[in-house]
């Protein structure tokens, strides 16, 4: 049974379990970085104004794909202008408030903690094979800083310095896996055992200790394209799933993955193996926070 199947089969059981609990004393740990970007960019709507080759205005399109379909019938020479319409700050912050409230309610939480990523990241020094997160765009939504201030003032959001918000969430979740619920859309956090909630898919699921380790070692095979971490070339999720299968011995998982690194990187296997371990592992103990 795959990790995905495990999560799916547990979904109904988990939901029933949580909804039977009437004391609402869960603590939901929210990935504030995702809220900042999703709510921020959701407030920015693109419009495409189109003119024909003679400068005659033809109309405004909400979606570029609709405009592209329309211009197929035009003679060449048409032009367009992209305009970004930004919703006001009050509406944007209201969207943030509604998002947080829905997460809290769905997770049956009496307490909420929000985590943000600040400056510095020890992984930037660890990554020498490729620049850590080097392919990510620098674009920020217009209300980026205002949303962060709102999360700090309204929800006491904690900012991670030198590490990532994910690390703080992993550390906090480990303190009480029974009561803490990680709310994020980032599957990287599935290396942390405990309750997880994806508010876009409305999926509430449990990750056990062995599944969490298997998720981590699978990432060691596949790498992480979003964070610009190279795994083993040509080895994707299906290969990792086939390799690790139903292995439930942590040391055996490690050995299987290390052997793949030896095959792929030869004399450089040890270095690449250790580098990726540090880049991909989400911290789960305050003692593991690197000294600055």
Report on this structure.
This protein has 2 domains: 236 residues, Rossmann fold (3-Layer(aba) Sandwich), CATH 3.40.50.1010; 42 residues. Strands 6-5-1-7-8-9 form a 6-stranded mixed β-sheet, with helices on both faces. Strands 3-2-4 form a 3-stranded antiparallel β-sheet. The protein has a two-stranded antiparallel ribbon with strand order 10-11. Helix 2 crosses helix 6, helix 8 runs parallel beside helix 10 and helix 10 crosses helix 11. It has 11 helices and 11 strands. It is an alpha/beta fold.
Walk me through the topology.
Elements: H1 3-19, E1 26-31, H2 32-42, E2 44-51, E3 57-61, H3 64-70, E4 79-86, H4 89-106, E5 109-121, H5 122-126, H6 144-155, E6 158-162, H7 165-175, E7 180-183, E8 194-198, E9 203-207, H8 209-222, E10 223-224, E11 229-230, H9 237-244, H10 250-265, H11 269-280
Parallel strand pairs: 1-5, 1-7, 5-6, 7-8
Antiparallel strand pairs: 2-3, 2-4, 8-9, 10-11
Helix pairs in contact: 2-4, 2-6, 4-6, 8-9, 8-10, 10-11
**So what's the overall shape?**
globular
**Binned strand content:** 15-25%
Helix content: 40-55%
The count of β-strands is 11
Total number of distinct structural domains: 2
Number of helices: 11
* CATH fold-level topology of the largest domain: Rossmann fold
The gyration radius over C-alpha positions equals 22 Å
Short key terms for the protein model shown above:
single chain, alpha/beta, Rossmann fold, 2 domains
Short précis:
The chain is of the alpha/beta class and 292 residues long. The protein contains eleven helices and eleven strands.
């Amino acid at each position: 049974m795959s990790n995905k199947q495990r999560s799916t089969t547990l979904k109904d059981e988990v939901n029933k379990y949580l909804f039977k609990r009437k004391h609402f004393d869960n603590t939901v740990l929210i990935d504030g970085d995702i809220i900042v970007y999703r709510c921020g960019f959701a407030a920015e709507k693109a419009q495409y104004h189109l003119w024909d080759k003679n400068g005659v205005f033809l109309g405004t399109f909400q979606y570029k794909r609709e405009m592209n379909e329309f211009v197929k019938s035009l003679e060449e020479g048409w032009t367009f202008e992209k305009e970004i319409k930004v919703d006001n700050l009050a509406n944007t912050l209201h969207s943030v408030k509604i998002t947080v409230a829905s997460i809290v309610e769905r997770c049956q939480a009496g307490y909420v903690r929000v985590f943000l990523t600040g400056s510095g990241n020890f992984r930037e020094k660890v990554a020498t094979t490729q620049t850590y997160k080097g392919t990510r765009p620098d674009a920020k939504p217009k209300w980026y800083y205002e949303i962060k201030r709102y999360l700090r003032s309204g929800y006491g959001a904690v900012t991670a310095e030198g590490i990532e918000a994910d690390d703080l969430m992993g550390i906090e979740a480990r303190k009480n896996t029974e009561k803490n619920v990680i709310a994020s859309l980032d599957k990287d956090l599935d290396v942390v055992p405990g309750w997880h909630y994806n508010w876009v898919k409305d999926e509430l699921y449990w990750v056990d200790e062995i599944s969490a380790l298997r998720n981590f070692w699978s990432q060691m095979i596949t790498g992480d394209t979003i964070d610009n971490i190279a795994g083993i070339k040509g080895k994707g999720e299906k290969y990792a799933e086939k390799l690790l299968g139903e292995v439930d011995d942590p040391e055996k998982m490690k050995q299987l993955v290390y052997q793949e690194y030896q095959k792929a990187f030869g004399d450089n296997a040890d270095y690449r193996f250790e580098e990726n371990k540090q880049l991909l592992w989400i911290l789960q103990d305050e003692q593991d926070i690197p000294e600055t």
